[in-house]
Specification:
Blueprint: E1 5-10, E2 24-29, E3 32-38, H1 42-48, E4 56-60, H2 66-69, H3 72-81, E5 88-92, H4 94-107, E6 115-119, E7 127-130, E8 134-140, E9 148-154, E10 160-161, H5 163-168, H6 176-180, E11 185-186, E12 192-193, H7 195-198, E13 199-200, E14 207-211, E15 229-233, H8 241-247, H9 252-262, E16 267-270, H10 280-289, E17 293-295, E18 301-303
Parallel strand pairs: 3-4, 4-5, 5-6, 14-15, 15-16, 16-17
Antiparallel strand pairs: 1-2, 1-18, 2-3, 7-8, 8-9, 9-14, 10-13, 11-12
Helix pairs in contact: 9-10
């Protein structure tokens, strides 16, 4: 079972190439799936990576540019053909809602499930989704149209039981959940066993931040401070800095500066421009600032 994995389905930018698919990722948190962006070819990549359609209930769309959302019509249609009945929740800027209404009216009438759209304020950092496993917050970004990133924060796990001590005191199974939640245990003779003797600290909760597409935007640094993994777009090399500024995108160096200032543990760069035959140049530029940088690539699975 995946603990907290990020699956890269596509990491290219707007112009299609034979090297990269349009942007899409799937988070696998203990077999619960959450999609981020849905460019063309997303569902084919899901097939290639053997990702189960039935476990996907939440889709987060960063903005209304085709390389981030044109895969939605086909994916929703496929869900209908597969006999899905549970609600599908889609989050994104308000224009995504208008887009969904249009495509469903044209292509996806009489679906056996509800497509529930939840609008995200792209100017606000706020909680937009919560379930038993995690919380998802919006991250305001700086692009040509309303755009947001997403911060995924795993909920704190329960403490680990010390089996040797549990066995020594012959603690019944019915009491174990309370102990994992922090309670002491009282023996039949009245002796109280402190919780700290019965448990070990829980594993730290993990954090993943997704920031694409955006110009260099230091305002996000406090919002992504100390995350375990940061995905930040790196569309351009330093030599194309002027083009990056013109199109409200970032260079690999700028992505690395954000990672360094935010004190993140690991950086993954993507959304590569089609003009580069190799992304090694981008990695080299990022490495100068933030050595713990990874190039995104289709099929890559990263443990947060």
């Amino acid at each position: 079972m995946a603990d907290f994995d990020v699956n890269i389905l596509g990491c290219g930018s707007a112009l299609p190439t034979t090297r990269h698919m349009a942007t899409s990722q799937i988070i696998n948190l203990r077999d619960k799936l959450y999609m981020i962006d849905c460019g063309e070819g997303t569902q084919l990549q899901m097939r290639r990576m053997r990702i189960k359609f039935s476990r996907l209930n939440h889709i987060f769309i960063s903005h209304l540019h085709g390389d981030h959302c044109l895969g939605l019509p086909g994916l929703i249609s496929t869900f209908g053909m597969l006999g899905r009945t549970g609600d599908l929740f889609i989050y994104g800027p308000k224009d995504i809602g208008n887009y969904l209404n249009s495509i469903n009216d044209l292509f996806n009438k009489n679906l056996p499930f509800n497509v529930v759209f939840k609008s995200v304020d792209t100017k606000d950092h706020s909680l937009i989704m919560e379930d038993r496993s995690l919380k998802v917050y919006s991250i305001p970004l700086h692009h040509r149209i309303p755009t947001c990133g997403f911060l995924f924060i795993e909920k704190q796990k329960e403490m680990h039981l010390r089996k040797d001590i549990i066995d020594f005191y012959q603690i019944p199974i019915k009491s174990l959940n309370l102990i994992k939640q922090g309670h002491d245990f009282t023996c039949e003779n009245g002796e109280v066993i402190p919780n700290k003797h019965l448990t070990l600290p829980a594993s730290p909760a993990k954090k993943y931040a997704y920031c694409s597409d955006t110009a260099y935007y230091p305002e996000i640094i406090p919002l992504i401070k100390n995350v375990d993994l940061l995905y930040h777009e790196a569309t351009f090399a330093d030599s194309d800095m002027a083009r990056a500024k013109e199109t409200f995108h970032s260079t690999a160096t700028q992505a690395a500066i954000i990672a360094q200032k935010a004190n993140v543990k690991k950086l993954i760069i993507g959304h590569f421009s089609a003009r580069y035959e190799s992304e090694l140049q981008l990695k080299a530029e990022a490495d100068k600032i933030f050595p713990n940088t990874i190039l995104a690539n289709e099929g890559l699975i990263l443990r947060v």
